């Protein structure tokens, strides 16, 4: 568990506000230009930021600095902070203590993500910072726990992206497709998504359905193999699955999905070359 005082020291905020811009009461032309220069120095597009977040125009620069200070205190580099703020300009006028700190404390206290991994979680999924703990993150965590994301399979910095998925509109429809579309039980689906959490991030229409159709219709596969190797859905249908299946079919070779897809292109091509040479020698 992370010591709150070491990672999120409240004194930083008041110190920054007082030290940098004490007495700032109005957004004069000079202060506004200073704010634009500050954003540019962070590699935040000020025009985009003002368009997405009009409140930024009247916000004191001290509030923007306090956001950077908090994010930097987690271990994020300044370029990383700038990238995040450019992606989500609404963060620039957020209240660090009431809006951002609760998210960081949730990751630390309720998921037990280490201090070293907090910046990894944020970098991989900056949307965490604009998500409500009570209405989004905690409900998603509760649902994921029912699927088996507990103990050694608990949520980590590698898959906190699952926490920003809406339970009713995003997670449940994917679970239902795997159950109803493939005939798996809830327990079987739970084991699949725990083994391959990325399954819950894929689009049903754009990923799951076309890959299942190709597997069943073109590859004449058995759905049980998808249960054993759910990572199948993580590979590109056009760039890897179809080309490799075509080559194997041309050589009359049957191969488990895991062996067909997990090796690199170089290894796969070398393996096919060896088969061709052996076939030529037999002739």
TrEMBL record:
Residue ranges the record marks as coiled coil: none
Database matches in InterPro entries: MTERF
One Pfam family assigned to this protein is: mTERF
**SMART domains, per database record:** Mterf
The organism's place on the tree of life at top rank: Eukaryota
Q: Which residues form the signal peptide?
A: none
- Where does the sequence pass through the membrane? none
Gene Ontology molecular function, alphabetical:
nucleic acid binding
Q: What is this protein called?
A: Transcription termination factor mitochondrial/chloroplastic
Q: Which species does the entry assign this protein to?
A: Arabidopsis suecica (Swedish thale-cress)
């Amino acid at each position: 568990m992370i010591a709150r005082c070491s990672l999120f020291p409240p004194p930083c905020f008041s110190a920054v506000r007082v030290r940098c811009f004490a007495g700032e009461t109005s957004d004069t032309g000079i202060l506004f230009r200073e704010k634009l220069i500050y954003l540019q120095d962070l590699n935040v597009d000020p025009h985009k930021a003002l368009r997405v977040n009009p409140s930024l125009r009247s916000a004191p620069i001290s509030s923007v600095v306090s956001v950077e200070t908090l994010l930097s205190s987690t271990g994020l580099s300044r370029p990383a902070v700038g990238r995040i703020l450019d992606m989500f300009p609404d963060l620039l006028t957020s209240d660090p203590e009431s809006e951002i700190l609760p998210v960081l404390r949730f990751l630390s206290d309720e998921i037990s993500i280490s201090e070293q991994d907090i910046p990894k979680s944020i970098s991989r999924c900056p949307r965490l910072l604009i998500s409500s703990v009570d209405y989004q993150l905690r409900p998603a965590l509760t649902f994921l726990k029912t699927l088996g994301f507990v103990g050694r399979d608990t949520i980590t910095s590698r898959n906190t992206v699952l926490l920003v998925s809406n339970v009713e509109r995003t997670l449940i429809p994917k679970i239902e497709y795997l159950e109803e579309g493939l005939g798996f039980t809830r327990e079987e689906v739970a084991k699949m998504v725990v083994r391959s959490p990325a399954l819950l991030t894929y689009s049903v229409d754009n990923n799951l359905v076309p890959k299942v159709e190709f597997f069943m219709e073109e590859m004449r596969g058995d759905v049980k193999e998808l249960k054993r190797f759910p990572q199948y859905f993580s590979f590109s249908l056009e760039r890897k699955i179809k080309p490799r299946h075509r080559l194997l079919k041309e050589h009359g070779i049957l191969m488990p999905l895991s062996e067909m897809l997990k090796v690199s292109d170089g290894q796969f091509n070398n393996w096919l070359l060896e088969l061709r040479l052996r076939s030529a020698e037999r002739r």
